[in-house]
Amino acid sequence: MSNPVEKAFEKSLFASRWLMAPMYLGLVVSLVMLVFMFGRDLVWYLPKLMEMQSEDVILVALTLIDLTLAANLVLIVMFSGYENFVSRLDVEGAERPGWMGKVDFGGLKMKLIASIVAISGISLLKRFMAIGETRVLNPDELFWMVVIHLTFVLSGVLMALMDWLQAKSYTSRK
Questions:
Q1: pTM above 0.90, yes or no
Q2: What sections of the protein cross the membrane (predicted)?
Q3: Percent of the chain, pLDDT > 90?
């Protein structure tokens, strides 16, 4: 027979996962903010299209891609986090993305780092494309941007290696 105090404690501990729900609602707000920024940038640049050089259009496209990747990242964290840590999403009849319900914490971690590397790479590419324009770029700033990007890349590779080693260790024990 189990201890009633222990049982009550475990029940309240398990129910505490719902404290994460407001955070996921906050992510919905951040998604709305990203959509607003995407629309604002699109509306801002469209009238200027005929005066823009192809490099400028590429920079605008990279900016929009950057915002889209960030929005995808928010969605992945929002859905996967909710399903992994709070409750399964019951959306019968809705078009459910194929990855929903299948992304565990390790998969979420890899999607997160891959998105961060992509966003960092786009930001770095935008800075490199701005070289030679009227704004003089600080060499120290570029150096640190490259170092930070490579740190993200290395972190991603090391996380993938750790996941691979863990999976290999798990399968060798079976």
A1: no
A2: 21-38, 58-79, 112-130, 142-165
A3: 23
